[in-house]
Amino acid sequence: MDLTTVIGIVGGLLLILIGGIGVGDVGSFIDTNSIFIVIGGTLAAVVASFPMSILKETVKHFSVMMQGKRYDTKKLIDTLVEMAQIARKEGLLALEEKAQGLNDPFFKQGIMMIVDATEPEEVRKLLENEMETTAERHENMISVYEKASAFAPGFGMIGTLVGLVKMLMNMDPSAGGSSTIGKDMGVALITTFYGCILAQLIFSPMAKKLTIRNNEEIVYKQIMIEGILAMQAGDNPKFLKEKLVTYLSTKERLKLLDEGGEGQPKKAKKEKKKK
Question: Do residues 253 and 245 lie in contact, with contact meaning Cβ atoms separated by under 8 Å?
Answer without folding.
Answer: yes
